[in-house]
Design goal:
The structure is a homodimer.
Chain A lengths: L1 E6 L2 E6 L9 E11 L1 H8 L11 E8 L9 E4 L2 E2 L5 H4 L10 E3 L3 E2 L6 E5 L3 E3 L6 H4 L2 H13 L8 E4 L3 H12 L4 E5 L2 H9 L3 E4 L9 E6 L5 H9 E9 L7 E4 L1 H5 L3 E4 L5 H9 L9 E6 L3 H8 L6 E5 L1
Parallel strand pairs in A: 11-12, 11-14, 12-13, 14-15, 15-17, 18-19
Antiparallel strand pairs in A: 1-2, 3-4, 3-9, 3-19, 4-5, 5-10, 6-7
Helix pairs in contact in A: 4-5, 4-9, 5-6
């Protein structure tokens, strides 16, 4: 089968054997996959990654222990957890200390014609839900994670800093949950997507407001974002960190301590929270698709996804 | 009167005029003052400070609008707040945006024979409470601030990283509130102080435990502390930042985001919380006094306070 291979920053496409299917796992045939900023970070050396990336996908179940799953269209939780430890029992398998992670840590990813995942990771998709929309479930769940971690009071004004793919999904999720959101970004055409859903948007031209919000989400994806987000936050307020930046960031802790800010690191979320938002069309994600490529042209697709102004690039078999 | 003067890293003692007493302020005669790590940071250039430092003190009221205050022995809140803004109305004058801060921001400090503070900042001390103990109220309030900010569940194990003055006070406060505390430090003689109060202590010899605590306090006062504290914290756990470090700290945000840690910056606290702990002898602070100097020998006192292994150095008229 065809599989994308990442090594030392180079993206290639290889012909590799079909992955074996362990007991409890399903063998999945890829329908569509999305390139995420994390994939671009992996290309830059994050996690010292070598292998097949890809963790946003929709696929068809080809083989499974559970007969009823075969033939179903599914999305999947990306953390392969032990199901027995304290974290797994608390429903937080995404923090299981022995987990592997699809396309990120020790489990081959979704940028391949076939992939495997434990059956318990799968979410069967409703027939009416297009794969082009369902492929956003994973990043949308990451956006939903904010509300799983932080009890933001109703009607609280929230600033979202950054208008990349994740920034847009975060603004859309918070907006769909009834929060007044103001999104700050540098791309008018991206901000237009959240503006159409009712998010207040601001194209950054001059200085950002200072000490203006109790809640600020940093989704800039760049090292400067944390500093900017902290400066926008009122004393005793909260900055939610959604940007994974590779490497060390020079960071002044003094404003955090003097203003007694809370910083909350936030990563993957639960697809159960994300599915209704797409299914009931509370969020229109398909407008974020910038391009689609066959797997065989993955090097071009990665280069395209890394360009300024580009949103979601899909890979298809 | 004699007043300590800090400028470009040099500590001198000057003869200066008595400070004027504005309406609503009290004129205070110093009885004893403590040198804090913040004073040593100010000496190193933190806040670009020039002037008279000092914010831990016990003094006698010499003049005040309120006649009953005159002759009383007092400690004082160090933030001079407007008393009218939203923060002040919420009882958080220490975040008042127009505040000045005794010996730190635009208000001459306590390392002088006389100082002024608004009457509303003063706490009259019980007669039986020795000044050598009451001078710890300000840093003890800073230690208490942790419990004002974070709802730590009862009986939760807490790690305190660092065995400096503030680290010891934090361990003692958390211990006095019934939490099982384990303090990690590099000075056996300092750790002995918290150990005598029942704190579990560990002299750091090898690697620190990994992902071992839900709650970790970084009171190391060095840039490495935050990294070490984050590594000791379990996924979804909380690191409380009590170290003010001058300048930029190289910081890897990836573990914060991957493990979804919460970081809480923490600064000054309320003396009302600290007073009963000293008054009822729940905490024995006087064993932390390493030396005392007259104001006229402040340069020696600062040099002494900066030496490794030294705890509280007092300055007296």
């Amino acid at each position: 089968m065809l599989a994308v291979h990442l090594e030392n920053g180079a993206v290639t496409v290889r012909d590799v054997p079909l992955p074996p299917r362990p007991a409890g796992f399903a063998l999945l045939r890829l329908l569509t996959a999305g390139i995420c900023n994390t994939d671009l970070e992996l290309q830059r050396g994050y996690y010292g990654f070598t292998g097949t990336p890809g963790h946003e996908f929709v696929a068809e179940v080809i083989e499974a222990d559970t007969y009823a799953l075969v033939g179903k269209r599914v999305a999947g939780e990306i953390n392969l957890a032990c199901a027995h430890c304290e974290w797994c029992r608390r429903g937080l398998g995404r923090h299981c200390p022995t987990r592997t992670v699809l396309g990120i840590v020790n489990h081959p990813g979704a940028f391949a014609e076939f992939l495997t995942l434990p059956e318990r990771n799968l979410h069967v998709l409703p027939d009416h839900l297009a794969s082009d929309r369902a492929v956003f479930l994973e990043p949308l769940a990451a956006a939903c994670e904010i509300l799983d971690q932080c009890a933001i009071p109703p009607h609280e004004r929230i600033a979202v800093l950054g208008d990349g793919k994740l920034g847009l999904l975060i603004a859309l999720v918070l907006n769909a949950h009834g929060y007044p959101v103001r999104q700050y970004g540098r791309h008018a055409e991206k901000l237009a997507i959240s503006a159409r859903a009712g998010v207040e948007t601001e194209l950054i031209a001059g200085p950002l407001p200072t000490a203006a919000y109790e809640w600020v989400v940093d989704a800039t994806g760049n090292p400067e974002g944390l500093r900017a987000a902290a400066a926008m936050t009122r004393p005793r307020g909260t900055v939610i960190l959604k940007s994974t930046v590779h490497g060390l960031v020079p960071f002044d802790t003094a404003p955090i301590i003097v203003n007694e800010l809370t910083l909350v690191g936030s990563r993957c979320g639960r697809m159960e929270e994300a599915l209704p938002l797409i299914d009931h069309e509370l969020i229109h994600v398909e407008q974020m698709i910038s391009a689609r490529y066959p797997l065989s042209r993955a090097p071009e697709a990665f280069a395209h996804a890394a360009q300024r102004g580009v949103l979601k690039v899909l890979l298809e078999p």
